[in-house]
Amino acid sequence: MPRNRSHQEASMPQGPRLVYSRKSSRKSSQEWLEAEDREVLLGIRAGDEVALAELVRRKTQPLTQVAYRVLGDLEEARDVVQVTFLKIWNHREKYDLKWAPNTWIYRITTNLAIDTLRSRKSRDRVQEPFKNHIEHRESGKRLRATVARVGQAEISHIFDELAELLTEKQRLVFVLRELEGLSSKEVAKVADCRESTVRNHLFNARKILRKALIERYPEYAAVYAEKYAEKEDPS
Amino acid sequence: MNDLPRDPQAQDPLAIFSDLPAVEISAEEVEDMQRQVLALARWSDSVSGDDDQLFATRESRLEALLTRGRMFAAAAALVVGVGASALVLQLGSPGHDAAAEEAGALAQARLETELSELLAVLPLVEELDAAPNRVTYQLDEGDLDVVMIVDEGLDL
């Protein structure tokens, strides 16, 4: 189930290949295209706006995806990503080489996403106590009515609905480990917890999601179980 | 269709999520993000500059605030005008139907929260005046007000 996404830091040398300072000559946009993430962060640390633009270019898509999986709202995800880049810039001198670039960046993004999630929940509690519940039920009815069309959009809706059942940490761990394909070690660093805690959160998240999926969407569960079985056993 | 797999461990229904679509971000959206982030970064750096940078500071502040207008637009708020010393945000959409009214109410709630977050990101500010339909914020140097107006149909 984890997607086979290779993370740049896996093949990255432990130390920086290039030590970038304010006195060194600045790279061009084209040169930054070839640079590794760690070099780009060192460029940012030195105050190079071109390096910041390059980081935005290469990280907007993956960070938006992570934030969206946590939040279930693309517009909020975009805001989180924008603030992530701003925080990286404002705290650029704090970037430590001991951090793998993706781990450091993902941590900022996921912390902001969880803050947004909490802020939204708090707001919803005060302003619209029943609205979400009604939308939730209507959304479920619509999905069940269109179960014949097992499309990606429906799957996104199902995930958004079921992910609401998870705690923030469970959701974060499930997204990073199962959907984004990070290792348990990387997830532990991003989520600031031990690997054993990651495994516990993952176990519980899967249990909750599996149960809810079978209860609420048995048709989907059956269809995908069959599809999955066919992939495993082509005969 | 309703038959569940006999061995749920071997045939995990959570495999459904392996088909979750990737979030599609266009090249234009990435460029837009670059522009906004750089504007905010420049503004952020400029606020600690000295007094002779005041004009540049003010311009970059406006630019940063306006780029963040995307957030407000998403909440059905509309940036309707920038005065000499004020950024004016009008909530709701033209017309007075129920949908617009609801959008306006939701936008107001979201804007109040997000404006406070924005102001936290851009350390502007003290709230000067809060009335049911109007909130006025003043920048730290007192050279630009951010005014939120919830009324519709204002002639700006």
Oligomerization state:
heterodimer
Largest sheet of chain B, in brief, is: 5 strands, mixed
Distance between the termini of chain A: 21 Å
Number of strands of chain B: 5
The average pLDDT of chain A is: 76
Q: Helical stretch count of chain A?
A: 11
Present the secondary structure layout.
The complex is a heterodimer of chains A (235) and B (156).
Chain A: H1 29-34, H2 37-45, H3 49-71, H4 74-90, H5 101-127, H6 131-145, H7 152-163, H8 168-179, H9 184-191, H10 195-216, H11 218-232
Helix pairs in contact in A: 2-3, 3-4, 3-5, 4-5, 5-9, 6-7, 8-9, 8-10, 9-10, 10-11
Chain B: H1 27-46, H2 54-67, H3 69-74, E1 77-82, E2 86-91, H4 98-121, E3 125-131, E4 134-139, E5 145-149
Parallel strand pairs in B: 2-5
Antiparallel strand pairs in B: 1-2, 3-4, 4-5
Helix pairs in contact in B: 1-2
Record keyword descriptors for this entry:
heterodimer; A: 235 residues; mainly alpha; B: 156 residues; alpha+beta; five-stranded mixed β-sheet; 4 helices; 41% helix; disordered N terminus; disordered C terminus
Characterize the structure shown:
The complex is a heterodimer of chains A (235) and B (156). Chain A is an all-alpha fold and 235 residues long. Chain A is built from 11 helices and no strands. In chain A, helix 3 runs antiparallel to helix 4 and helix 9 crosses helix 10. Chain A is elongated and about 55 Å long. In chain A, 38% of the residues are buried. The N terminus of chain A is likely disordered. Chain B has a 5-stranded mixed β-sheet with strand order 1-2-5-4-3. In chain B, helix 1 packs antiparallel against helix 2. Chain B is extended, with a radius of gyration of 22 Å. Chains A and B meet through helix 3, helix 4, helix 5, helix 7 and helix 10 of A and helix 1, helix 3 and helix 4 of B.
Compose a concise summary of this entry:
With 235 residues, chain A is mostly helical.
